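User: Hi! I have a protein structure encoded as tokens and I'd like to know what sequence might fold into it. I'm fairly new to this, so please keep things simple.
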């Protein structure tokens, strides 16, 4: 098996920013409530004529610029998203058309906020076996088009954006030191989009009842999220035979600052070692980890040889954690 490394990162955020103060004018909410309960101050929102695949394209160009590789060097593409362009074909296929990279295999991962970690695991396996050289993994979301803007319990939480990485073979000692993924479908109804699939096809009734939008039992998820992130992160540290002191940077999925802080507290990880972006991007499900990674990479927070810990959780319920030597 060949070791892997992330050779480039990129991200893209739609230019329009919606602040908590803007939301105060649209619904019965306040900057104080959103900040105290979630840590979110603002989020980016895509234009009506932008699709999730457009964000994949933009973040892919940024990741390529960061590596010196060209589009023709990519030999597979994986897109993780909870807000796809269409049910089928995949968002990856729409992005492939726009990027003009025909023939290579491309597909979506449906694992909500854990989708990027699921994608990274698959990409690493493809490269480790030697069957593929450079695999692009992108987490991309336009949540603003699938939230119910009259439900203040959910719409204030999410944002739009994308983050991409390119996974290639490594000559040095970098690589995936440990990884762990899991899921529990018995918790599916805690967070889902009820209508639009075969369980509940679109009808006038589903539209009237706004069943094509995010339905979430926030308080229940909150408890599961902290336990799952802690457990997953501890498992991979044990598997890699590392302690928190060996970790240079922790990049958790960012759904709520209180979840991140509680996880860090239970794991004795200082917030200084934790890269937080939720205040400016909100919860950007599958894009949260890769766009945080890109920002950490570009701002010099990561050096070759650093051990980076990732942990995520999301609808499904799905979860995962990884330790990567950069
Ligand atoms: O990445 C995907 C996974 N999703 C998550 O991880 C979400 C996890 N859950 C959470 O982050 C939190 O549970 C929320 C941020 C969603 C909610 O925070 P909470 O502290 O659990 O609040 P709550 O749902 O218990 O609601 C408390 C109160 C309620 O009012 P009453 O019933 O106490 O009078 C809500 O109606 O806050 C009210 N409320 C709001 N008030 C102002 C709910 N949303 C809002 C709002 N503005 N936007």
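Assistant: Happy to help. Inverse folding works backwards from shape to sequence: for each of the 326 positions I chose a residue that suits the local structure. Here it is:
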């Amino acid at each position: 098996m060949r070791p892997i490394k992330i050779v480039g990162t990129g991200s893209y955020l739609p230019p329009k920013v919606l602040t908590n103060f803007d939301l105060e004018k649209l619904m019965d909410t306040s900057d104080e409530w959103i900040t105290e309960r979630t840590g979110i101050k603002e989020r980016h929102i895509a234009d009506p004529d932008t699709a999730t695949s457009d964000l994949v394209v933009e973040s892919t160009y940024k990741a390529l610029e960061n590596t010196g590789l060209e589009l023709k060097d990519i030999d597979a593409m994986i897109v993780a998203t909870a807000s796809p362009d269409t049910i089928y074909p995949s968002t990856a296929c729409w992005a492939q058309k726009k990027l003009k990279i025909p023939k290579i295999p491309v597909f979506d991962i449906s694992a909500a906020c854990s989708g990027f970690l699921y994608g990274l695991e698959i990409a690493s396996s493809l490269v480790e076996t030697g069957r593929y050289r450079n695999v692009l993994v992108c987490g991309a979301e336009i949540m603003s088009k699938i939230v119910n803007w009259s439900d203040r319990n959910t719409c204030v939480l999410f944002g739009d954006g994308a983050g991409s990485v390119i996974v290639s073979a490594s000559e040095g000692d970098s690589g995936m030191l440990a990884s762990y993924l899991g899921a529990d479908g018995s918790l599916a109804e805690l967070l889902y989009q009820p209508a639009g699939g075969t369980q509940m096809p679109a009808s006038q009734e589903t539209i009237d009842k706004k069943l094509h939008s995010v339905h979430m039992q926030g308080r229940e998820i909150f408890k599961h999220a902290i336990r799952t992130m802690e457990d997953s992160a501890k498992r991979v540290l044990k598997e890699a035979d590392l302690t928190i002191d060996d970790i240079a940077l922790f990049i958790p999925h960012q759904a709520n600052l209180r979840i991140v802080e509680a996880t860090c507290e239970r794991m004795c990880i200082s917030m200084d070692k934790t890269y937080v972006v939720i205040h400016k991007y909100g919860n950007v499900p599958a894009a949260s980890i890769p766009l945080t990674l890109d920002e950490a990479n570009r701002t010099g927070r990561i050096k070759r040889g650093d051990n980076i810990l990732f942990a995520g959780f999301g609808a499904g319920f799905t979860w995962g954690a990884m330790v990567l030597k950069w």
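A useful reference point when you look it over: The pocket of oxa(dethia)-CoA is lined by residues 29, 33-34, 37-38, 113, 152-153, 156, 191, 218-219, 221-222, 225, 255-256, 259, 283, 285, 314 (CB under 6 Å). Feel free to ask if any position seems puzzling.
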